[in-house]
Amino acid sequence: MLHYGSRILKAAAVALIMSGTPALADEILDVRLGGRDIGSLDPAKTKTGDDEFVALQIFNSLVAPPRGTLNMALDQLQPQLAERWEISDDKKTWTFYLRPGVKWQKGYGEVSAEDVKFSYERQLDPDLGGVHGASFKDIDTIEVIDPLTVRFNLKQGNAFFHAQALTPGFGRFIVPKAAVEELGEDFDTNPVGSGPFEMVEYQPQEGITLKAHEDYFLGRPPMEELHFHYIPDNNAATIAFIGGELDLTSGQRTPEWVDQVTKAVPDAQLIALSPGSLQFLHLNMTVPPLDDVRVRKALAYGIDRSAWAKVFGEISGPLETIVPQSFYGAIPLDMVPEDLRYEYNPEKARELLAEAGFPDGFSIDAIISERDDYLTNMLMVQDMVRAIGVEINLQVSDHATYHANLREDRGTIVELSTGIAPSAPAVINEFLHSAAAVGKPSALRNFSHYGDVGGSVDELVEAAVSETDTQKQLELLYEAQLQILRDVPVIPKQTARLVSVVQGEIDLGYEPVGGFGQHEFATARRVEN
């Protein structure tokens, strides 16, 4: 049985509990969500990986990287709602030709260029309350050329526009204008998309049921239903997977967890996505004493980043600067001066604190999610900086509440673990552009307020994305990363491969090697071992 909190879901009764039309057990896929409840399934408002996981099954984007990868090379882009596209030489005009006859779920007609225009323009509306608007800040106008042709005119050339604004996830899904306008706020929990599965039922703090979209333009999915279960406790999810009550679950990103599950379920398929999540700390520069660069540097020197590899083993990867070395535009490590590498030096940290007026250190409150990777990371940081005289008083909440509080700018030392498109501009614009600072209508995930209250690399990155000379483009991106290291608005810790396990009889229909941890189920089926 699935035990979590005071709730119990019996696997034999899942179809009756979660759906008014029971499906055969071999046509159901049972999937764990690690949070406690939904935030919003409206693509303009999704904040957590759980919400994105469900949205991925319901919606489509214009284009996508090859399945199971994060390959954002322009010549590798795959059609989704767009069957072909044209990009001007200066990268300012992007024209998309939609597939004809793509049907919205629940009788809302066919996908049109007007729906695409609406999907993007609503996110640029500050009254919507969306959270992804800064991803689309380069859009000047959107034209409907004809019912199946839409054109994006950018304010300046942007060679990364596809990775920033067009591929699956984080606000880039297309929604039906008619359904959004008719349903209003109900669209948050009763979404309508064009994807392989459509919404059936949502039970608060219990789960979500989706059913196959019969008219899906790429073919009806083999699975009749998807049952997503909210199980925040990792031990409960692990027991449920070992007992065969879950077909797929994420788990603790530790070698011990991987060993435990694969020994208990020998035919289980382990999925470890690289580079996985970028894990770093945002230092809220509006909160004293974090407004002092000497204090921020002291914290950087006081954190031993080599500890993550020792604790997490093969699941851990290096993150020497904010941009992983495998991402396009990452500054080569041999170009980073020694004084900007912030190698562990508690004595140097204490000297900087004393220089900043804190010879005995200081105490600061910080919120943190109960989710295992967030809490484990923050407990490690708490223990390390205690040695330099800094006491972090942690206030633990569930994951959805944590993210909601971050959006209200209640974070001080902010732990974040997330995937993102693999390029330097994507990382910097998401977390360090002034327009992305929380509290602004265009906010993304700049919890440090970098560029807003101190320091800035906005102009460097904007010049880089519009630069057509590759060498000059890279030089601009390198300088931006050096400036970030000088200002220390964030402290990188590690990349953590996203780990999940799938029962042996489940074939996803593709090989997942890179991504954000949200798997596609459009082609998933049960097969005989």
How would you describe what is shown here?
The chain has 3 domains: 2-58 and 180-271 and 499-526, D-Maltodextrin-Binding Protein, domain 2 (3-Layer(aba) Sandwich), CATH 3.40.190.10; 63-176, Dipeptide-binding Protein, Domain 1 (Dipeptide-binding Protein, domain 1, Alpha-Beta Complex); 274-497, Dipeptide-binding Protein, domain 3 (Roll). The strands form 7 sheets. Strands 13, 14, 15, 18 and 19 form a 5-stranded antiparallel beta sheet that branches. The chain is globular. The longest helix has 18 residues, at 470-487. Helix 11 (372-386) links the parallel strand 16 (362-369) and strand 17. It has helices spanning 14-18, 49-58, 113-121, 161-165, 177-183, 234-242, 255-264, 293-301, 306-312, 346-355, 372-386, 399-407, 424-431, 458-466, 470-487; strands spanning 2-4, 7-9, 28-33, 63-64, 78-79, 82-87, 93-98, 139-146, 149-154, 197-203, 207-212, 225-230, 248-250, 269-283, 316-317, 362-369, 390-397, 413-418, 490-502, 506-507, 525-526. It contains 15 helices and 21 strands. The protein has 529 residues and is an alpha+beta fold.
Strand segment tally = 21
The SS-based structural class is: alpha+beta
| CATH architectural name of the largest domain | Roll
Q: Tell me the domain tally.
A: 3
The helix content, as a percent range, equals 25-40%
Based on Cα principal axes, name the global outline: globular
Figure out the total of helices: 15
Report the CATH C-level class of the largest domain. Answer: Alpha Beta
- The portion of residues forming beta strands comes to 15-25%
CATH homologous superfamily name of the largest domain? Dipeptide-binding Protein, Domain 3
Measure the end-to-end span. 24 Å
Main beta-sheet annotation: 5 strands, antiparallel
> Taking Cα atoms only, what radius of gyration do you get, to the nearest Å?
23 Å
What is the averaged pLDDT score? 91
The CATH topology of the largest domain comes to Dipeptide-binding Protein, domain 3
